[in-house]
Amino acid sequence: MHPGQVFTLILAAALCVGGAWICIGRWSRARHLLDTPTSRIRSAAQGYVELVGVLRELMVPQPMAPLTGERCLWWRYRIEEYRSNGKRSSWSVVERGVSEAWLRLADATGECLIDPRGAEVHPAFRKVWTGDLRHPRGVAPNGWLGLFSIGKRYRYTEERLHEGEPLYALGDFRTSGGGRQGLDLQSAKRDVIRQWKGDFAGLLQRFDSNADGQLDEQEWSRVRLAARLEAEDRHRESSAAPALHQLGQPGEALPFVLSSHGEEVLTQRFYWQAAGGALMCLAGAVWLASQLGVTAW
After folding, report:
1. Closest CA to 245 of 85, 83, 113, 88
2. Tell me: the pLDDT tens digits for 95-121?
3. What are 199-218's pLDDT values in tens digits?
4. Which of 1, 98, 207, 209 is an S-S bond match for 76, by CB 3.0 to 4.6 Å?
């Protein structure tokens, strides 16, 4: 078997495996969307949840989209350069970036902060245009003029999320404050003692009643009692604070999805992508079989 045949076999196998991976991954995402019920922010259980609401501005300056300078809540961009060597030409990515600014999602029951890092984001706003400069200046041209690429060296893509847009979110939900956390008294007490030991001189000053430079059993009993009372006080203070809801990337291998489109649109998109992956897998399998001389008979 000569090197060309080996390369063809590897390419066919890669097409088959890659298609199967896309099919399984996209199908799994669609099933997670359908199988996870929509929760309200105020009453959502801790863990993996699905939320639907409207994006609101945080009490900080809004991010600026790097290519157009437009105000938004989140952005992603890509710059491609047109390259040609005489025989073949293509667009190659020379720069890309994505916002890490936190988002604020609101529904009828409350608000939730979202850390978008690691999320698969599907914004409704997407603009593609071309130009002669590595970094464009000003607002992107409208209509077909922005895609007219003859003589243009660079192609720009910018995606954004804006205030007031609907947002579908699927990820790991956590709440702090508001009396939602239970108290593990033994663990909390150990944390307090560990913190006090970091300033052992101060610990001796407070509890070394006989001034011998060390803590005996009776003095350690006082330390443990004081630590328990301190842990209870800290828990009461944190419980009295307003509830803070946050959504982020799940720790397990679960999808983290943010989208301006609803569940139905996303699910259909994932199913179509899964079907495309299945066709790739089938094409790769047929190609591989033909190269190996395998027939269906």
Report:
1. 113
2. 999 999 999 999 999 999 999 999 989
3. 888 877 888 787 777 778 88
4. 98
Q: Are 58 and 104 in contact (CB under 8 A)?
A: yes
Distance CA 290, CA 41 (A): 55
Checking phi first, is residue 179 left (phi over 0); if not, alpha (psi -120 to 50) or beta? left
Under a CB-based contact definition with an 8 Å cutoff, are residues 260 and 165 in contact?
yes
- How many C-beta neighbours within 10 Å does residue 290 have? 12
**Burial degree of 113 (CB within 10 A; 0-12, 13-18, 19+):** middle
Residue identified by tokens 């099919």 is 23
> What residue ranges in the chain does DSSP mark as E strands?
47-56, 74-84, 89-98, 103-106, 111-114, 120-122, 125-131, 154-161, 166-176, 244-248, 257-259
Give Cβ neighbours of residue 121 (< 8 Å, ≥ 6 apart). 74, 76, 98, 159, 161, 257, 258, 259
Q: Packing angle between helix 217-240 and helix 185-197, nearest 10 degrees?
A: 110
